[in-house]
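Quick note —
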Amino acid sequence: MGFREVWHAHEEAQLVYVTRGVLRIFTHHGMWTLPPYNAIWLPPRYARTACHRRSGGAQRLYFAEADPFVDAHPFCQVLLVNELLNALIGRMAAANAEPGGIALVTPLLLFELSLAGKVLTGTLALPDDRWLRAICERLLESPENNDKLDRWSERVGASPRTLARLFRRETGLGFAQWRQQLRLVEAVARLALDVPVSVIASELGYGSSSAFIAMFRKTLGDTPQRYLQRHAG
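Predicted structure written out below.
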């Protein structure tokens, strides 16, 4: 882990573009995991914290709330950065001390952001309920855990039926679906860090590399390496 920020918020909207390593951002309602060539749009006054997986690098741009684009995008979203966006973000970051340059680059950058592909794989909803939060925090630390909801109910003191209902209500996913989404998020992050597929499969609780690859392809429509080439540069 390279660093972890304190919880904070900005008055301006922010675009965080990952250039190296893997960045993970937490808000009170979700977690976003970004490999290189992904960027996250963060609306104004959106409380969050961030941590890098290993050493990493990111460029950060800020946008005034008065900009129409900011008003039209009130939610967090992860975007795939193509070559043109990469160049525009780099130019705008370099123009921070040049107000005239920023004024010229910003409209084109925001236009290209509106056309950018959306990336959903790295997104994971986090529940508010204290029982679910305890379960999710444990699974974030140990995504390979295969315990069924019955086991978790014994630990947190709520019935399996109650937990299942709350998972669906607060995350939009069943418990097994949420855990699989967590593993997909972890898998993409580890692939971006050049961890071998065989190691990822073992670390995420799969009996074999082929079982992991089959799950990955069934869910995302591609093998892990091909997916990474398309979505993480």
